[in-house]
Amino acid sequence: xxxxxxxxxxxxxxxxxxxxxxxxxxxxxxxxxxxxxxxxxxxxxxxxxxxxxxxxxxxxxxxxxxxxxxxxxxxxxxxxxxxxxxxxxxxxxxxxxxxxxxxxxxxxxxxxxxxxxxxxxxxxxxxxxxxxxxxxxxxxxxxxxxxxxxxxxxxxxxxxxxxxxxxxxxxxxxxxxxxxxxxxxxxxxxxxxxxxxxxxxxxxxxxxxxxxxxxxxxxxxxxxxxxxxxxxxxxxxxxxxxxxxxxxxxxxxxxxxxxxxxxxxxxxxxxxxxxxxxxxxxxxxxxxxxxxxxxxxxxxxxxxxxxxxxxxxxxxxxxxxxxxxxxxxxxxxxxxxxxxxxxxxxxxxxxxxxxxxxxxxxxxxxxxxxxxxxxxxxxxxxxxxxxxxxxxxxxxxxxxxxxxxxxxxxxxxxxxxxxxxxxxxxxxxxxxxxxxxxxxxxxxxxxxxxxxxxxxxxxxxxxxxxxxxxxxxxxxxxxxxxxxxxx
Length: 487
Known about the structure:
487 residues, alpha/beta, Rossmann fold, Dihydrodipicolinate Reductase, domain 2, 14 helices, 35% helix, globular, glucose-6-phosphate dehydrogenase activity, oxidoreductase, NADP
C-alpha cells in the first residue's frame, strides 16, 4: 500500500505522459485509498492558475469506477515555469513549501521528470539553488527512458544525479520490469526444480526474445530518428529480459544481489567480432503502402536517414552455462503483430526410438517453453504427443498455464504500480546504474562496429516480421523463429 504524506513535483504537466498516465494513475491510487494525504505540484510553461489546470486535466480523469474527482482535484496545484529560468525555480519552490505546510507533508518530495530528455540535466543543475531540497523529509527523483544516448552521456547524467541523490533515491523507469510475467522469470527459473535443472547448455538449444510493435512513430519522429530501435528498445527492455534469462542464481532476492547477478551476466556477453557483425545483426526500415508512409516518407524524417526501425541479433556468452547457446532477439515497428514473448527452445530429442517406426512423422519438433508477456501473459510448454484420434506419433501440443490478457505497458493501471513503488521507496523493479552502464557499453561497442562496417539497412514490408535476413540469422544454423504470425 502506498504511503501518504508526499508531494509529487511533476516537471512537464501538459504532455501525454502526465495527462494520459500520471494523473489518471494518481487518481486510481486516491480512489482505492492507497494515497490519502498528498499533493501534486505541476510545473509547466502554460499560463494556468490552479483552477485552470484542474479544468484542463479533468477530461483525462476517466475510470471504470466513479471516483471522487472533485476531492482529488483539491490536491492538484499548478505553477507556470520556464525550466531555463532560475527565478522560476525559486517561485516554484516557494509554492511547494506552502503546499507542504498546508497538507503537513513533512517535506517529502518526489521529483518526476515528465519532460524531453534534453531538459533532464538543466533541471537537475537548478535544483540545489532553488530551495526545493532545503527542507527536511525524503527526496526522490524519477526519470523516464532514455537514460542517456550512449555510455558517456548516461554516465554524465548519473554523476549529476549522484551529487544530489543516493542510488536508492533514483528511480529510472523501465515499464517492463513492472510486468507480472517479467517478475515471474526468476520464480519460473529458480523456484522450480524442473526448469532450474535444465536451464543450461546441456538441454537448451537457443533462446529467442521477440518484442514487436504494429505502430509507427506516434509523433516521436525527432526523438526516434536520433535513437533508432537499438538504443530505444534493446539497450533497456530487451537487455533487461536477457539478463534475467541468462543470469546465475543470485545469493538472495535482495535488490543488490539480483543486480549483481544481472550485471555479471551482461558482462559475459561476447563483443561482436567485426568480421561477423553483419552476419549476427540485421538492421531494417519499413516500407509503406497505400495507407501508411514508409519510414523515409514520414514527416520530419530525412530522406537519407539510416536509422533502423528494426533490429535483430544473435548474442553469445562467455559462460559455461551458455556455451554454444545463442540468444536471439528482434524488435521493430510496423510489424505483423504486437507482442512481447520469450521462447526457450530445447535441444531436439534423440529419435532412435521412433526413427524406424512407420507411424512417426518425419520430424519431431523441439520442446519450447514460451513466456508470454504482452498482450497475453502466461506460460506455454510445447510437447510432442500422440492425439487419440490420429494414427501417427509426434503431433505437437502446447500445455498452457495461467494465460490471460496482460495490462498494457504504458497504461494508467501499469503506472499505478510504478507510482506506488516509488512512493513506498521500493526500488526493486527499477534498473540500477550498474545494469544501465554495462548495457550501454555493449551497445556503444556494437554501434561502433556498425560505423566501421556500414551495414545494409534492409527494407521490410508493413505487416511482416521484419526483413527476410532476420530469418537467415537462424536458418544458417538450421534454426528458425519459434513465433511467426505470418505463417
